Amino acid sequence: MPEWVVDVLFLLMNGLIWGLIIALISLGLSLIFGVMGIVNMAHGDLYMLGAILGFSLYPIVGNFWLALIIVPVIIAVIAGPIERYVLRPYEGYHSVTMIATVAISFIIQQIGLATYGGIPKKMPDPWPISFSILGVSYPGYRLLIAAISVLILVAVWLFLYRTSFGILIRASIQDKQMASAMGIDVNKVLISTFVLGSVLAAIGGVLAAPVTQVSYLMGNDVALLAFIVVIIGGLGSLEGTLIAALGLCSLEGVMAFVLTPTQSKAAIFVIMVIILMIRPRGLFGGKER
Amino acid sequence: MTHRRTFALGSLAVFAVLGLLLPSGIRSLVIQIMIFSVFAMGYDVSLGFTNQCSLGHSIFFGAGAYGAILTIMHLKAGPVLSLFAGLGAGFFFAIVLGIVCVRLSEAYFVIVTAIISAVFHLLAMDLTWLTGGDDGLSATIPPISLGFAKLSLYNPLVNYYFVLLFLALSYLFLERVIKAPLGKIFIAIRENEKRTQFLGYNVLGYKLIAFVISASLGGLSGALYALTLRYASADYFSFYWSVLPVVWCLVGGLGTLAGPWIGVAIMSLFQYYVSAWFTYYLLLFGILVLIVLKVSRKGILGYLLAKGAK
Amino acid sequence: MKKWILVTAIVAALALGVSGDNAANAQAKKTPIKIGMIADKTGGLAAYGYSHEKTIRAAVAKINKEGGIAGRPVELFVEDTESKPSVGALKFRKLVETNGVDLVLDSNSSGVAIACAPIAKELKVPYFPSVSATEVAADKGNRYVFQSSTNVREEVGAAAKFALNKIGKKWVTVVVNYAWGWSNEQDFAMFIKQNGGTVLESIRVPLGTSDWLPYLKGKIPKEADAVFFANFGSDFLSFIRDLHAVRPDIQKLGAVYALSAQDIKKLGAPAEGTYCITPFPTIASDSDTKAAKTFRELIGVDQEGKEIGTGTRFVLAYNWGMWETMFVLKNAIEKSGWKGKSDTPKLISAIEGIKWKESVEFPQGDGYFRAQDHLAIVGLYIEQVVNGELKVIARIPAGEGAYPPLVDFTKEEF
């Protein structure tokens, strides 16, 4: 096999794996938007919070996997009251809710800075084994990220498509007023969606922590990418988010081979504009909101 | 409605008097407050009057700043001309962006404007030959020649009243727009877009006009800022400057034109004073925002006006 | 009668006013010297602000303990730039206009420094940023600004001969894609060529890239024997790992700060043998001077440059600049007899060309502020990873390879 093919395959693989993490985060964002109509400006900071908590818990519990389970619980405990007491009162007033999430973002970021500090740190590799694939050694942890992300995505899919509560959530994405008229407890749906969305972002953070730097500002770039993914995939569409995340991240990885850094970033933007011109609601976007 | 006007005109009068009384440190802060008030007021036209929640206004702010600095550096323009260059830059980009974005539905509009502004930021950081990148460009500002005299912006009082003049002019201009039929159509669009459409109005066209007015003021504000700091940098295109106007408007009071000035004042005062004794002042400010929103969704001025109306 | 009382009162008041002035001058010995610091306490550069503040406070404590400057205590005011030029400019003005400081130190952000330089001149306040942007000692600076740090061109210039003689002749540069990376790339190429070497390839990689393979694989010519890199943090980790996969044999030289804040032991084979330029040794060692050891004690860091008690890593590569500036100011103020704002031109003239010798106050080594461009001309250190440990293996004396000044501020009016 020619060398460049191996290289491109590796880039594709790295891109796909990073795409899986982005898919988790974007899925959370898309759910929150789809059900609650909120553009969640604090989403990136929940990712950051997950990474920081994962980083801090790791030495305490000694086990990365234990941290991966504990962090979502902590985030759920934080996210629930945020939805109930901060966001729900402004339900229906989209710009007010958005500013409320901006305020939350300020608060979370400053708490992150005050406790974790301003210095970006590196987390040790939880599975420092390498596998020989196609003659090059590939880090085992990255394969694990892929496996765990896929498991979580499947679990979320099962939840949304096979459980009665999940169907309620999807019904609310389709038409909240109708769902409410049919006697569904919308409040329960709202809080569960926000918690689920936040937990997904936080898990993305814990998984990403060992492969990237953990810093209190790490949420900003990821949030932007998540927004692009959600737009291209179509707000409120779960399949669209997944496809857009995987597609975009693998594409960016491969483009690095031929384009300069600035050209790659600009190319993503051009792709987004083209898609929006052909399909103004994104690839799988739903009806008018 | 008259209460709102009284507040605005009263504030302008207070600014006028403060310029002579304040010590130099706070005076510099108030100059900044006035510059940002132009930005915030312009943003109110977009969000408060036609419900267009743009997260891309940093494009116009940055374009305005560079319009001013670049015309001074390369075209040897005077301050007033450079201001119009900045305003023009904001106007130009608003038309280009507006034509693409105004038609998008609410949430798409928000996110797409945010993404486009991120791209502008990236470009500004990269095109260092033009923008100076993150390091920025500093320029010596020539004096304003009035024929019989030369006024230098390096004189703090001149700087102060120069900015105040344009704040007042912008306010009076917007006040006329809001009073005019155009303004009433804006409000109609805000209250019920579909109905306004059914009544035969070209809603997209009017939304575009509002967007362009809003962006032009953002450009003017950016130009004033660049003139006052004698500096422009790619940082002016960053997301921070897109988020701030929204915060200012929501804290101060949407749809009131002068309400956002309160938001500007509070945030600036927080940054100036609280930051010195508590590094994480943004945390306190975030809590303050939540409290303000809890008390009144309409922001501070909205709340006061509602109380006054009772 | 009343008229006379009034006249007497006015005359008395005037007299008191005049003598009050004299009294004020006599008091000047005791009134504090106010020094301001615009620190990057929050934002992208928060890591610098923290250690810079601690370092400057330690310097102020030492100075005050030893009797102050010219018998006057030093009072420090610290403001946050939020790592943004606009906020930095606002806080610079605040320090001078509201707090009344006479001198301003710091920010590590070139954007802040460039925004504040004209303000320093406008307000006639000497300013000492801690930035490595070469432009500050050139067209973006002015007579009131002194570059209290090594700049990129100086750093690379000092290391060039060593690089060619000891590391390799045919180079490839790999830098992160923004101003600091570009400066390193261009200046390195210039000095290497000047000294008879060649740069075969220049590679730029976006910040935050976790996968450097696509940028390195197949891009490094076979005949290249060394790589000069400018990156840090997790970029450095990805880079060193991927470079090792592609060219394990090649020599490596890192720009200033590349190895900072890294746990060298954990890096393993990929990092072995890597050289790095640094203005101040990262790790304390027995071969350190007593001055350097005392300096570490006074600012409260351990062998590895971490703060004792919190474990926070200091940015020693830049902290020394702020520490030493405080003592330059002490010496210059005492030498010039500076009493207040009106004496500032005297002070600036005293700092232009001022020399210092290695000591606790100047632990980094001998040096001087070059009069024409206000750049701190100091020596540099070359560190190398040897058996998993970072050691200083060479010291480059102050001024070696120093580029000629690009401006002459001494001709500028105050």
Question: Approximately how much beta-strand content do the residues of chain B carry?
Answer: under 5%
What CATH calls the topology of chain A is: ABC transporter involved in vitamin B12 uptake, BtuC
| Arrangement of strands in the largest sheet of chain B | 1-4
Could you spell the SSE succession of chain A in H and E letters? HHHHEEEHHHHEHHH
How many beta-strand elements of chain A? Answer: 4
Q: Quaternary status of these chains?
A: heterotrimer
Cα gyration radius of chain B (Å) = 19 Å
What is the averaged pLDDT score of chain A?
Answer: 86
Helix coverage percent of chain B: over 70%
* Termini gap of chain B: 13 Å
Structural class of chain A: mainly alpha
Key structural traits:
heterotrimer, A: 289 residues, mainly alpha, ABC transporter involved in vitamin B12 uptake, BtuC, two-stranded antiparallel sheet, two-stranded antiparallel ribbon, globular, C: 414 residues, alpha/beta, Rossmann fold, 2 domains, seven-stranded mixed sheet, four-stranded parallel sheet, 41% helix
